[in-house]
């Protein structure tokens, strides 16, 4: 490899420009904090000093009106991502919002647990280069489609909800709004923001699994135009009933906002988090199903750990020129470092004359001899190391100008945006070669990282064997630069008819370097992608409570999108291209207290990538998902409120993306999935709740050779409310259902069992 081609740690011109913009944001914030420096509203000039004895007209500034907001309601309100549109009725796209009230009612503490309210969204476990919250949405990976306050949150870590007000899920390809990725949709985390009302609360909870958790949320006005808010979290213990799921996490999220209710508002925010977790690689496949073992079996080592340090810094300036025109600039810097020492079950075999003999991994239709007929007590699991130290950094700046104007009788809401981004990635891999019994598991010079073996039925709980030393493997480094511009217009032809049209041009350039090369990994590769994304829709709103729409949207996924190599053997592959058609409706009932939605859609991905038998990739496949979804949320009566959703996904690999996949169902794509949560206030003090999450069968890989059965899980809640405090008991998996939560496609398709029955008792206290 030519060393001059290797991406360096130096800053590119785009990165330098973004750093300067970030520094400017801080300078403006300091200026906004100075007395008398806030920008004045536009409009007529303020009159000169009035003569004695006369009354001088007052120029009033915009006032924050605080209504009797129902903080216990599951109804979402307006969307936080301005470029998507604020009122969900004006967005020709399916949207699901999980707000803080719903998360608290269900006892959700992680992003993954909150997202289980969204049928058609499935969880993928940690694997290979993937760590943290991994999501499939509408049958497609959403690995790089997670956002924080509308800014790309690409790094790999386990995401908590302690600092979030809501989680917004926009369905379908959305590259016109968000850039590369977003085949199945995007997930946007909405952070808590300061207000001019003082508030402080603290919570503590304890679970039967042994997990103890506490959170704090304090909002403090600093003046009549500024406020400070800080949220914090600490937790320690076992996350589930499964072995080896210990957590020890802490985080804080301070936010300060200047210029509240003035034309110029500046928000500075940070998320600082430290995670010390254990990855759960689940159980291996056996004869086309997850191995039938105790649900708490884990096949890692006691000293496995995934340690992450997360730093996310944000600065947003929002200036209102007039009531209809404002300019917004957002800068977001993320730095995530993860030190992972993880062990996964890789292959089920047997012990012959003291040596491990590999058997089936689930990738072949016919198991190797004897494995399928042997008692499970005679089978062993080979354990493979998945160790790496990853540093993931990104710096993005987004500038948006929005304005409203009329052309005759036609009204326009125009959005113009410019996005600049710079990503860097460094992944130092390690491997641990060990023995099974008296014999080595790896050939001399091999780097497969097979560390040890353990019985399948009753795995031995030990630390990493002393003879399985950690040795460095491949060092992957990468950089990526993004430059994009877009324009979107919402056109109101009449109060009943609206059109939405948008176009975006992306320029994405990436470079990847590796110190270990092979047929599957090039020493150096680069890729430049120029792609035009479009969005179009039509809405008919016969009354304010009804909205019907049809839409078309596109997106693209470069092969180096994740800043890791995906090569055809000699060069990067063309980007995956995605198209979506959607027809739907949204209705408000019960004086706007209940919202209904329904949609039918089709998403087609061409140039779909897959790994060949020799380890290289091809991009010749086509994947299509035909689906439908429906949802309900809101207060049915003063006592009863519900949140429910259903999704139907008919996914098909139209053209084979790998041998044996044509006509198959994409991995982790259930045909039917539903969720329902309902609460009822028996009295003003006592509240009960119950719900279910259901999924049809899924496949753990694209060959459909490992099938994971469907399930229905029930949860329940009882709460006691007082003006100063709440006491809540949540019971999870009420019937102790044995089901599989997350799926991992690698090594034939592993499945992670869900937790057994457990309960969490929490106390939330409001100081004022």
Automatic annotation (TrEMBL):
<protein>
    <submittedName>
        <fullName>TonB-dependent siderophore receptor</fullName>
    </submittedName>
</protein>
<dbReference type="InterPro" id="IPR039426">
    <property type="entry name" value="TonB-dep_rcpt-like"/>
</dbReference>
<dbReference type="InterPro" id="IPR000531">
    <property type="entry name" value="Beta-barrel_TonB"/>
</dbReference>
<keyword id="KW-0675">Receptor</keyword>
<keyword id="KW-0812">Transmembrane</keyword>
<feature type="compositionally biased region" description="Low complexity">
    <location>
        <begin position="35"/>
        <end position="59"/>
    </location>
</feature>
<dbReference type="Pfam" id="PF07715">
    <property type="entry name" value="Plug"/>
</dbReference>
<feature type="domain" description="TonB-dependent receptor plug">
    <location>
        <begin position="89"/>
        <end position="186"/>
    </location>
</feature>
<dbReference type="InterPro" id="IPR012910">
    <property type="entry name" value="Plug_dom"/>
</dbReference>
<dbReference type="InterPro" id="IPR037066">
    <property type="entry name" value="Plug_dom_sf"/>
</dbReference>
<keyword id="KW-0998">Cell outer membrane</keyword>
<keyword id="KW-0732">Signal</keyword>
<dbReference type="InterPro" id="IPR036942">
    <property type="entry name" value="Beta-barrel_TonB_sf"/>
</dbReference>
<keyword id="KW-0798">TonB box</keyword>
<keyword id="KW-0813">Transport</keyword>
<dbReference type="Pfam" id="PF00593">
    <property type="entry name" value="TonB_dep_Rec_b-barrel"/>
</dbReference>
<feature type="compositionally biased region" description="Basic and acidic residues">
    <location>
        <begin position="61"/>
        <end position="72"/>
    </location>
</feature>
<keyword id="KW-0472">Membrane</keyword>
<feature type="region of interest" description="Disordered">
    <location>
        <begin position="35"/>
        <end position="92"/>
    </location>
</feature>
<feature type="domain" description="TonB-dependent receptor-like beta-barrel">
    <location>
        <begin position="276"/>
        <end position="734"/>
    </location>
</feature>
<comment type="similarity">
    <text>Belongs to the TonB-dependent receptor family.</text>
</comment>
<dbReference type="InterPro" id="IPR010105">
    <property type="entry name" value="TonB_sidphr_rcpt"/>
</dbReference>
<keyword id="KW-1134">Transmembrane beta strand</keyword>
<feature type="signal peptide">
    <location>
        <begin position="1"/>
        <end position="29"/>
    </location>
</feature>
